[in-house]
Automatic annotation (TrEMBL):
GO biological process, one term: proteolysis
Recorded name of the encoding gene: radC
Official protein name in the record: DNA repair protein RadC
PROSITE patterns the UniProt entry points to: MPN, UPF0758
Keywords: Hydrolase, Metal-binding, Metalloprotease, Protease, Zinc
One Pfam match: RadC
Amino acid sequence: MSIKSWPEGDRPREKLLSVGAAALSDAELLAIFLRTGLPGLSAVDLARTLIHQHGSLGSILQLSRTAFCASPGLGDAKFAQLSAVLEMARRYLQQGLNEAPVFTQPEHVKSYLQAQLQHRPRECFAALFLDNQHRLLAFEPLFEGTIDSAPVHPREVVKAALAHNAAALIISHNHPSGVAEPSHSDRMITERLQKALDLVDIRLLDHIVVGCGETVSFAERGWL
């Protein structure tokens, strides 16, 4: 049965317009993006198949172009659309950070870092460089590692902070496993970075670890 023949309240697009996007399942959201299905499969059925095949909606969002286009019902046009949507989300969130001091909107900071880091296939260490009023100067990925580690060099972080004339930093990295819980090494490198930054009178405000749909803040846990 095609989606057009479904009751209006069950159709993903009509449901979104009626009750909002937050009420839709991952498959329904993906179906709206896909717009059409395949012979014998509605867009929702295709979306469910893709999510089952790749494990989650998040896994689909982080596919390489080659892997994305190899999936049934997807291709270069859809990959371009998805890339554009993700980039618009990142720019929207960054604009919000540019308009107010970062410390006044911690949830916005977390959302921005999730948009930047969550779907990267390798661990990436990045920093938000802030002025003395904690307004955003720049976001910069600094180190990238293997699937589960990134070498972090405190001297390079200090150099980047001085180059941006930053008064404070929020550092962040992702866990490609999807689990945001910080490791012992995460805590150790944070201590080393804090000591290195203290030497040049730059404050380390937080270290945010990004997982799949979750974040952990060192500051909120009282570790900074």
